[in-house]
Amino acid sequence: MADRIDAISTRWSLLRLAHGTHPDTTKARQMLVLRYSSAVRRYVGAIVRQGDDTDELAQEVVLRLMRGDFAGADPTKGRFRDFLKIAVRNMIQNHWAKSSRRKTEALAAEPLSSDTERDQAWLGVWQKSVLDHALESCRAEESTSGAYTLLRLRMEFPEATSEELAEKLSTKLNVTIKPDACRQMLRRARFKLAESLVEEIKNGLEDESPARVLDELAALGLLEQVKDFLPGNYAQSGKLIS
Asked: Which of 105, 220, 228, 234 could bridge to 127 as Cys pair (CB 3.0-4.6 Å)?
């Protein structure tokens, strides 16, 4: 079962499976929760700014995913991240409307006082989610490539020279790595991350065309991570080059 469900190519496919009566339905729901519960929690926290309500509302969204309450979601109407954002915001509005402590319109009076601010908060949350999942893909190959460790070191020490990175990586991996080799490893690691980011972006789109992928990368502020590997004909080929 795990092999079949891990091969699902898009979040929409996973969501449809999670809301059916297939033998893999329970596993699909669990995967949705594992992938997106942190993003949901951060976004609820950005809007609500109150610990008890944040935990309660985030747990409610997660429970709805586990129960299969989003069967009516339609991938033809937009991106998966937009669907999830709207689901979370509707949950908050309904909660406040029922609580008698706030009316539905109270969203406008919250610290995130405009749709633009809330949308920016969600973009930040989703950017982190996409990047975290792409890095996780790199970590899965850590035993053979060292890509994850090197990428993390570069993120932690963005101004470090090749010599400094090589020394830090040598310490981490308990092997001697020369600066030239470290530079080559870093480029390979960055290419792997770029590939993983593109795949992660595709998984959340209703249209996986290269143009849509580039638009989404730009919208999430992640284009910088892949631009060095974009050929001039990417819009036609849809392939990165190392």
From this structure: 220
